């Protein structure tokens, strides 16, 4: 396993864990009917935003270390380019589906747009990383043992 594959596995693990934890938090909030839109409790958002930056910082560190180590070849670059394109399509599909879901399940004017835009963009970032990691791992899997 080369350095690019290790980076892809780390990105996959971080983004998958982030999306699972986010889904669990959203399910908990919806199940217990917690009013997260109350502006008198803005400290919740600040604390949550601090914890939300940890996965992004981990991914930035992984990307920085991977660029520092020049052990990748043209095949790794090609796989990364194709995987990013597929990840971008996955993120746009996620954003479209999330927008449709919000239009169908919520009343008009019940949610302020500022509360929805940032979490959706944040989650779309991790969907992009997850889909591109899966696409890259599939492409690496097709190569066989002799191309490692």
Please write out the topology.
Elements lengths: L2 H29 L10 H27 L5 H32 L7 H31 L5
Order of helices and strands: HHHH
Categorize the overall geometry.
Answer: elongated
Termini gap: 7 Å
Number of strands: 0
Separate helix tally? 4
- What does the radius of gyration come to? 18 Å
Helix content: over 70%
How much of the sequence lies in strands comes to under 5%
Number of domains: 1
What about the largest sheet? none
What structural class should be given to the helix and strand makeup? mainly alpha
Poorly predicted parts: none
**Overall pLDDT, averaged?**
78
List descriptors:
mainly alpha, elongated, 4 helices
Give an overview of the whole structure:
The radius of gyration is 18 Å and the shape is elongated. It contains four helices and no strands. The chain has one domain (3-142). Helix 1 runs antiparallel to helix 2, helix 1 (3-31) runs antiparallel to helix 4 (113-143) and helix 3 (74-105) packs antiparallel against helix 4. It is an all-alpha fold and 148 residues long. Helices cover 80% and strands 0% of the residues. The longest helix is centred in the middle third of the chain and has 32 residues, at 74-105.
Q: Could you give a quick summary of the protein structure above?
A:
The protein is mainly alpha-helical.
